[in-house]
Design goal:
The chain is an alpha+beta fold and 95 residues long. The chain has a single domain (4-93), classed as Conserved Hypothetical Protein Mth637, Chain: A (2-Layer Sandwich), CATH 3.30.1200.10. The chain has two helices and six strands. Strands 1, 2, 3, 4, 5 and 6 form a six-stranded mixed β-sheet that branches. A hairpin with a 3-residue loop joins strand 1 and strand 2. It starts with a strand and ends with a helix.
Length: 95
């Protein structure tokens, strides 16, 4: 499976998360995952909450349309975004 999978209902992203970074950003591909850095620390689920909020802004969907499918306690995550309103240019270039 590739880092980004486009389905009829949305996008599935395989993510390598880098918490406690200096800024929120999509770094690019890292092996078969999309590397994303976020500023939140990996404590008490703060990184997961921040990641979903960040993706919500990028894809212009409510947080309820983003589902963390795998990796709740891991840096390797799988996220499904239902019906994204917009797709960031960093993602379009990788599809």
């Amino acid at each position: 499976m590739s880092a980004i999978e486009q389905t009829a209902n949305g996008l599935r992203l395989r993510i390598l998360l880098q918490p406690k970074a200096s800024r929120d950003a999509i770094i690019g591909l890292h092996a078969d995952e999309l590397k994303i850095s976020i500023t939140a620390p990996p404590i008490d689920g703060a990184a997961n909450v921040h990641l979903l909020k960040y993706l919500s802004k990028l894809f212009k969907v409510p947080k309820s349309m983003i589902q963390l499918e795998k990796g709740e306690l891991n840096r390797h995550k799988q996220v499904f975004i239902s019906e994204p309103k917009t797709i960031p240019s960093e993602i379009i270039s990788l599809i």
